[in-house]
Amino acid sequence: MSSLLTNTSAMVALQTLKTINTDLGKTQSEISTGKSVATSKDNSAIFAISKVMESDVAGFKAISDSLSLGESAVSLARQATETVTDLLTDIKGKVVASQAENVDRSKIQTDISALRDQITSIVGAAQFNGMNLLQGTEDVNILSSLDRSSDGSVNASNITVNRQDLSSGAGSYGTGTSLTPNATSSSATISATGNTSDLTIAAAADVSGDTFDITIAGTSVSVTGLTGDQDAAATAISAAINALGLEGISASSVTDTVTISSARAFEDVGVAATSGGTGITVSAATIGERAENVTFSTSANVNEGDGYKVTVGTDEFTYVAGKGENFEDVANGLKTAIDAGGLAGITTRVAIGSSGEAILKVDNSGADVALASAGAAGGDASGGLFGLDGIDVTTNQGADAALANIEVLIESSIDAAASFGSSQSRIETQNSFVSKLTDSLKAGIGSLVDANMEETSARLQALQVQQQLGVQALSIANQAPQSLLSLFR
């Protein structure tokens, strides 16, 4: 049946043409935007995923900037610390030169002072955008990543860079919890007389033909050809020991007893004695070192701001621990402080005991002085190069002390440089990873939303042909009612 009012063929052709035009418009949009999913109506799920990933890309770009800033700051700090290490090494060379007796120590001290001032200048100037990693102890966090979990939550990750305090300030002793039990003094007095061991000879009316073998500090002597009783033997043994000329070792006799004294500051002296027949006994097989000890705890921890004090005579010397330090660091700090005090006859040394305990040894070659130790929490930490200002090689005592102390300062500076180097390497690695991760995210976004231009181009040509055919089909369908006119002629 033909109808003037309803042209079914034209309706079908029109709908087909509309569909072709819609597809053609979408294809032209893909070509102009380069995206197959340009808006949420194109594909809401893919659009949502791509936008989340695009926000992550923007975030990682900001992270890359943060890492670049952090890397620059750490690199500057590392270079400054390495320069400080070189200057400290130069100071060590001056200190070593001062050990000779025929040098002008005042001129050497002038050079040391100039190098010390240069170190202070470098530490103060080593700042990047106002941040100085060579002063203070607070950690610096550098934004390094955004971690998105499966539930969609996002957490920021940081790379922590430890500040390395290379200032030389003395810090301030606290008034907090008492830490005195952590530092024990071996005696309340530092005496210059040293320690002794007695050789007691058994009673004998005649020691003729007897032989006495004495060993002191690894050196042996035999006493023979004696005449008289045990008192005469004691006198002869005492004379033989003194004739050895052992440094710091002397002997004296009273009746049947020989008293061996050792003035060696930081060295124990072994003593042994045997007799061919008369008999001889030793009161102490070891004569202890003359120095008195301040022994630190092996069970307690050292926290930033923990201060320890050693009193020698009427002079007080303090050291306040910094972040990450231990009791060996405390002992070295106190040694440096005492050495810088320049007390006549007072020398120091740091040792590690058989149980791992840190020991500060204080020797005295002058008049007896009092010794006491104490500790308290809550102070402000001393600088990492504490004691640098106290290096003085103008005296024999100062030159000897400086040689040991400069080694501690160099070690602190090397540790700081190593720490910065490790942090910089980690930041560089993370920055490289973030760059690659950003590229991967961009590639992922492209695979989701970018149009396949080869395919789209081919589809465009096909749709253009379909459009032309659709127009022709619609034109033919619209001409169909014209045939009805022939019926009315």
UniProtKB/TrEMBL annotation:
Its main location: secreted. InterPro entries: Flagellin, Flagellin_C, Flagellin_N. It is found in: Secreted; Bacterial flagellum. Keywords: Bacterial flagellum, Cell projection, Cilium, Flagellum, Secreted. Residues 405-488 form the Flagellin C-terminal domain. Pfam families: Flagellin_C, Flagellin_N. Belongs to the bacterial flagellin family. PANTHER family: FLAGELLIN. Flagellin is the subunit protein which polymerizes to form the filaments of bacterial flagella. This is Flagellin.
